[in-house]
Amino acid sequence: MNADPEVGQPPAHLGDRAIDGPVLKALAHPLRVQLLDILSQHGPQTASSIGKRLGESSGATSYHLRQLARHGLVREVPDRGSVRERWWERTPGALTISTPGAEQDPAVREAARQVSGYFERGRAESLAAFMASDATELPDEWSQAATISTLNAYFTADQLRALTRDMEAVLREKLETYRNDPATPGARPVQVHFNAFPLIDTQEPA
């Protein structure tokens, strides 16, 4: 599952990765977080296609993709593209922000704060776009299938930790059951928080 970074949770599955120190500092740039979001949501892209979505030059997106690749966050798609047009994808696995020594290193602590904030801003913008959508952007069947859910309860820290891990395990299992190839007829990008809603592509390339 290509999830946004989770703060404070250790990797629980093969392929998951804790990002800390140098990687956090490299990721602490709003455009780089946007690149990861686009590759997570829309699958493999070129620097040009991402640039069109974001209103950035392909030179800028290409540079930042290479920096992400240096730290193993993205990779080139094998056997696709050419010397002039390289295709990129998210490296599989969930990301976890891990800062065990951050309190001793203000630069790492600040990088973790920035990265978490950039990803949270992206989530908020995706939800706001869905909430503001109308029938011209989203058929009624998709609106009816989505959910925006808030539940309240009292937990101890241990209970909350157990609940989040149990819920993540269920979500991972269900995502693998229902995950479709982007070419599957009727499939579109969906984001699960839990809220679960179809993404409104406000940055579709021209």
Please bin the fraction of helical residues.
40-55%
- Name the CATH homologous superfamily: Winged helix-like DNA-binding domain superfamily/Winged helix DNA-binding domain
Unreliable residue stretches: 6-12
Query: Would you tell me the structural class of the helices and strands?
Result: alpha/beta
How many strands appear in the DSSP assignment? 8
User: How do the strands of the widest beta sheet line up side by side?
Assistant: 1-6-2
* N→C terminal distance: 28 Å
Taken together, the total number of domains comes to 1
CATH architecture: Orthogonal Bundle
**SS summary, helix count:** 7
Task: Tell me the series of helices and strands, N- to C-terminal.
Answer: EEHHEHHEEEHHHEE
The third-level CATH topology is Arc Repressor Mutant, subunit A
Shape: globular
Range of strand content: 5-15%
CATH class: Mainly Alpha
Q: What is the residue-mean pLDDT, rounded to a whole number?
A: 84
Task: Fill in the keyword field for this structure.
alpha/beta; globular; Arc Repressor Mutant, subunit A; 206 residues; 3-stranded antiparallel beta sheet; 7 helices; 8 strands; single chain; 3-stranded parallel beta sheet
